[in-house]
TrEMBL record:
HAMAP family: Succ_CoA_alpha (MF_01988). This is Succinate--CoA ligase [ADP-forming] subunit alpha. The lineage of its organism: Bacteria, Pseudomonadati, Bacteroidota, Bacteroidia, Bacteroidales. It comes from the Bacteria. The keyword Ligase applies. It catalyses: GTP + succinate + CoA = succinyl-CoA + GDP + phosphate; succinate + ATP + CoA = succinyl-CoA + ADP + phosphate. Belongs to the succinate/malate CoA ligase alpha subunit family. The gene is sucD.
Amino acid sequence: MSILIDKSTRLIVQGITGRDGLFHARKMKEYGTNVVGGTSPGKGGTDANGIPVFNTMYEAVEQTQANTSIIFVPARFAADAIMEAADAGIRLIVCIAEGIPTLDVIKAHQFIKQKGAILVGPNCPGLISPGKSMVGILPGQVFQKGNVGVISRSGTLTYEIVYHLTANGMGQSTAIGIGGDPVVGLHFRELLEMFQNDTETEAIVLIGEIGGNAEEQAAEYIRNHVTKPVVAFIAGQSAPLGKQMGHAGAIISGTSGSAKEKIEALEAAGIQVAQEPSDIPALLKAAKDTTRDILKLREQELVDLELELNNMVDDEENNNRD
């Protein structure tokens, strides 16, 4: 199946006539994504590389039946663009912009929840279901269709780890970057649930980093709800306290949010944590083998139990005849 995007995705590019919007609209279309339109106020009725341009999201959705949007507008306009998309009926919104004021993101997120929409980002690379659809700025050539779900707080680490997965014959069902800001839309927990319920996904790679407690919450959720093999990598293991490292959300406050805390939480939940990105494929293979062995053992236990119950029934019937 994959999650969130597939061949049925109908995409609107908000800010399509800007440099980044125009470039990535073309790249997504070349990948095979069904880019049905774009928006740019005052430029409705024109086209961008053969893609129709509309003045508003309401007009774009009404005329194209789009269900997904990606936002390439400056940070100061991005929160309004998120809300405009949800108000027009878009169900999946991907926001690439970095530097949106936190309170603006909170306001936009509350608004779109009331509309029943889902936000990926902000400050994220987007997502890809290899061979089906790409909504974002990811390098499509490193991805390969398969059964490994990838969730990440880091864009470039996603590309590196996926490169190693693909090189080892481990394709991906869907890979998604959730964003590196303190406040984002979808979190690890929601995506873990989606991958757990996805019949195409057989294993999960979780890529975290310092700051916040998303990885600790993910570890607790995995312990209680995820039966598929999971391996992880945590970036920032040598990061100093109190210093922002790249993303706005990648900062250790006191001792909270450190790589050590996150690794300990994940390992306590039975998740193998890689020391290097290149270690992921070997750990994933081992986790898959372990899960397979456990399932075989449980199947044999069920067979033995059924046989024992049948024998008990036979003995009871024989006793009744006597």
